[in-house]
Specification:
This protein has helices spanning 120-139, 145-150, 166-173, 350-356; strands at 2-7, 11-21, 24-37, 49-61, 67-79, 84-86, 90-97, 100-107, 110-116, 155-161, 176-188, 192-204, 207-219, 222-231, 240-248, 252-261, 266-277, 280-285, 291-292, 295-299, 304-308, 313-321, 326-331, 339-349, 363-375, 380-393, 396-409, 414-423, 426-436, 442-449, 452-453, 471-472, 475-482, 486-488. The chain is mainly β and 491 residues long.
Length: 491
């Protein structure tokens, strides 16, 4: 029998261990934890402490081939600076023998079950072998799914959980809400990996998702994934249906995504394939499936985006709709040591794009833009310009917004950046400066106002009952900053 105490900034607790040492090792544990600093121990990033008590037994043979642990975690409390979280008790029952392993965990309405036809050492050995085999295959850019499947253990994992359990209460403390979780996965060296994950109603701030469903199947062609995100309930303000179908290939992966809005209109359909090649990775968009922002796009059959192992980028992607809406991503020049990429957007309807991305703010207007990036081993430069004609935010028209941005290397390792904002063709603001990365780093710049209409802010004040009129007159605000200290003055 051993009594122990811990009194330090990390752990405040005490307990008793009663051990039996013969052909089988056994110990009874009774531990009272008054305070465990989870942040200082590196368990989580939040300022959170744990308190509670554990009472149970642990058993083992001398060669560790037979293991068992049973016990109860009771009176669990998570203490934050401003509140205390009381959690349900946790019941544990874990056992491993040379031919089998199982684990049962219960906490409120959470039930976790794991079973395998192998001991813990066999499971660890198979896991190590699968990881090594996968790394070797990726290195040689050749995925042999049959070889990987043969190494899978014969195992089952199940999870059912509602709103009243340790995990759900911790998520609510983090301001996330999950109504239910159900999971069932099986693995077998003959049938492969199969199962599903279903999550019912997820809420995080304004984000509300009714159902998430993912299914994994190991068919004759290999591993496939079907996923659905659906909002169909009457009280959900953002009804939609999004689907994903992905599959693992010999040299990479392929996926198809689709989005339908609450009226059943197809807003997005896109298919792509990624292949590992000698020296890099190549992306190809399927030319017969492209729908973006409710428009059918023609795409060049030889489209590609190639990223080499040394981060060189080559591209040739051209999408064009009947009404002139277009997107191009292409590389220029023959210098293999330089990235020279241009992105061009023509007549993109922002309102229809926002409908395809339902949790973005409701914006409107037509976007045209051109962006150019050049990079080599020594420097990086970028220049871009964009115009949003008749731009609107949450139903309030602001006008035609324009921006110009420039970034280029300066002298002695400095970086120079400039930006301009226009409204209806008139320049209203300018920002520019120089960043010096020497020492702690230093920024020296200025922000200049011309005639900035205050009405631009009204789109963001729609729910407040306030509005602005008039102009913000000419002004100049120098700004100097380091990584630790920032100062600014203005007039």
């Amino acid at each position: 029998m051993v009594d122990f105490k811990a009194r330090n900034p990390l752990i405040d607790g005490e307990g008793r261990i009663t051990a039996l040492l013969n052909r089988r090792y056994a110990a009874q544990l009774d531990v009272q934890l008054n305070r465990v600093d989870l942040r200082s121990l590196g368990v989580i990033a939040d300022t959170l402490t744990l308190a509670g008590n554990f009472r149970g037994t642990v058993e083992s043979t001398h060669n560790l081939k037979h293991l068992a642990a049973r016990g109860e975690l009771r009176n669990l409390r998570f203490v934050a600076p401003t509140r205390q979280l009381i959690a349900q008790d946790v019941l544990l029952d874990v056992s491993s023998r040379p031919d089998s392993t199982f684990a049962h965990v219960n906490s409120g309405d959470l039930k976790l079950r794991f079973a395998a036809r192998s001991g813990w050492q066999g499971l660890a050995d198979r896991g190590t072998k699968i990881a090594q085999l996968a790394m070797r295959q990726f290195k040689h850019r050749d995925i042999d799914q049959a070889a990987l499947k043969r190494e899978l253990p014969d195992a089952t994992l199940q999870l059912e959980a509602g709103r009243e359990n340790l995990l759900a209460r911790y998520l609510r403390y983090k301001q996330y809400g999950v109504n239910s979780v159900a999971m069932h996965f099986t693995s077998h060296p003959t049938t492969g990996l199969n199962g599903f994950l279903r999550v019912g109603q997820i809420k995080a701030g304004e984000l509300l998702i009714d159902t998430v469903l993912a299914e994994v199947t190991h068919g004759p062609e290999g591993l496939e994934v079907e996923a659905t995100v659906e909002n169909r309930k009457a009280d959900n303000p953002n009804p939609f249906l999004a689907t994903l179908h992905g599959r693992l290939l010999r040299a990479g992966a392929a996926a198809n995504v689709a989005f339908k809005d609450g009226n059943g209109r197809l807003g997005l359909r896109l298919g792509a394939q990624v292949d590992m090649e000698d020296g890099g990775t190549r992306l190809h968009l399927n030319s017969d499936t492209v729908v973006v922002a409710y428009r059918n796009f023609a795409i060049n059959a030889d489209n590609y985006l190639y990223v080499s192992d040394d981060r060189r980028v080559r591209a040739n992607i051209k999408l064009l709709a009947d009404d002139g809406t277009g997107l191009q991503v292409y590389s220029e020049g023959s210098d293999s040591l330089k990235n020279d990429i241009t992105v061009t957007v023509n007549r993109l309807n922002l309102g229809e794009l926002a409908n395809v991305l339902p949790y973005l703010p409701k914006v409107g207007g037509t976007l045209d833009g051109d962006f150019h990036l050049i990079e080599d081993h020594h420097s990086f430069a970028a220049v871009g310009a964009a115009t949003a004609k008749d731009f609107a935010y949450e139903g309030t028209v602001i006008g035609t917004l324009g921006t110009e941005l420039m970034y280029q290397p300066g002298d002695n390792g400095q970086h120079v950046a400039n930006g301009y904002l226009t409204l209806n063709g008139e320049e209203v603001a300018e920002i520019g400066g120089t960043y010096d990365s020497k020492g702690k780093g230093k920024f020296d710049g200025s922000f200049k106002l011309r005639e900035l209409p205050l009405s631009m802010a009204n789109a963001f004040l729609k729910e407040t009952g306030f509005c602005y009129a008039g102009h913000c007159q000419r002004g100049n605000s120098p700004c100097k900053a380091s990584l630790k200290v920032r100062t600014s003055t203005g007039n």
